[in-house]
Each structure stands twice: as structure tokens, then as C-alpha cells.
Amino acid sequence: MTAEDPGHTEQTEHADHTEHTGDGQARILLVEDNPLDVRATLRAAKRLQLGNRIDVVGDGDTALAYLSEGEPPDLVLLDLNLPGKDGIDVLKEMQADDRLKRIPVVVLTTSDDDADVLRAYDHGANAFVTKPVGLEGWIEVAAKIEGFWLSLVRLPPQS
């Protein structure tokens, strides 16, 4: 997956310090249709040398297909405004699936609208973050997400 083609998976980064998968890496699914935001997220992760595996999909339908196949990720970073099924649809379907409903989801979106915040939490989001401006903002957000979700908290075991 390249940042210019957010409709498919497989931009990956790798880490040594997390222990969420069998190979010592946390697996993150980034659901984002904006190539600039994909690029910024991946650059921030690289700059921080996080190295976790980051798979990227560019729409809600592809995200749900990814989630239904194989081993689920440890964390989902989810945009709300997506082509096809939007982020709220993805949250609803994840909550309806026993295999997916415990995966932590951080909504990462341009919206700061209270109605979007409430809808996201009502449908199972674990956190709501408004996208930052500039690479330094992305680095700060990536560091905080990684520090909390992939270093501090205990994630649910994969079933």
C-alpha cells in the first residue's frame, strides 16, 4: 500500500517494543481515504521509529473486508468521512461482530462537531481525536496514541 493508493492494504512499519502479536509487533489498521493524511500518519510513525505494522485501507467496505479476514488488528485508526460505508457504519458492524467488538477504535477525523463525537462514542469508539495540522502535530498525536494504546493499556487478547 502506498500513500498515493489508499484503497488497498500493506504499508507496513515494524517495531520491537510492543508485545501484542506473536512477532512482537502491534498491528494497526488505518482506515483513511485522504492520501495526504495517510502519508502524514506513516511519516509520523516512521519519525517516531514506532515500527508497528500499519495496514492501510481507503474505504469502509474494504475495512470491513479486511477485518473479517484473518487475524484482527490490535488497534483501528478510523476516519469518519469515507467513501462507501462511512466510519459510523464501520463502528456499527464491528460492534455487531463478537470477533471485532473488543478491538480498540480511535476515531481520527477532521470533524470536531459534537454530534460526530457523540455518534462515534455511541457506536463503540474508544477515543475521538481531531486530526492535527502539520507534521509536528501528527508526530505528537502518533506518539500519544502509541504511548497509551500500545504501551500503557492492556489490549484484549485475540480470540
Quick structural gist:
The protein is an alpha/beta fold and 159 residues long.
How does this structure look, described?
This protein is an alpha/beta fold and 159 residues long. It has one domain: Response regulator (Rossmann fold, 3-Layer(aba) Sandwich), CATH 3.40.50.2300. It is 37% helix and 14% strand. The chain has five helices and five strands. It has a five-stranded parallel sheet, with helices on both faces. Helix 1 (35-47) crosses helix 5. The radius of gyration is 14 Å and the shape is globular.
Set out the fold topology:
Layout: E1 27-31, H1 35-47, E2 53-57, H2 60-68, E3 75-78, H3 87-95, E4 105-109, H4 114-122, E5 127-130, H5 134-152
Parallel strand pairs: 1-2, 1-3, 3-4, 4-5
Helix pairs in contact: 1-5, 2-3
The CATH architecture is: 3-Layer(aba) Sandwich
Query: Largest beta sheet, briefly?
Result: 5 strands, parallel
Sequence of strands across the biggest β-sheet: 2-1-3-4-5
N- to C-terminal separation? 27 Å
Percent of residues in β-strands: 5-15%
Q: Name the CATH homologous superfamily.
A: Response regulator
Instruction: Indicate the CATH class.
Output: Alpha Beta
- CATH topology, by name, is Rossmann fold
Number of helices: 5
The number of distinct β-strands equals 5
Number of domains: 1
Overall pLDDT metric:
86
Helicity, as a percent range: 25-40%
Coarse morphology: globular
Would you tell me the structural class of the helices and strands? alpha/beta
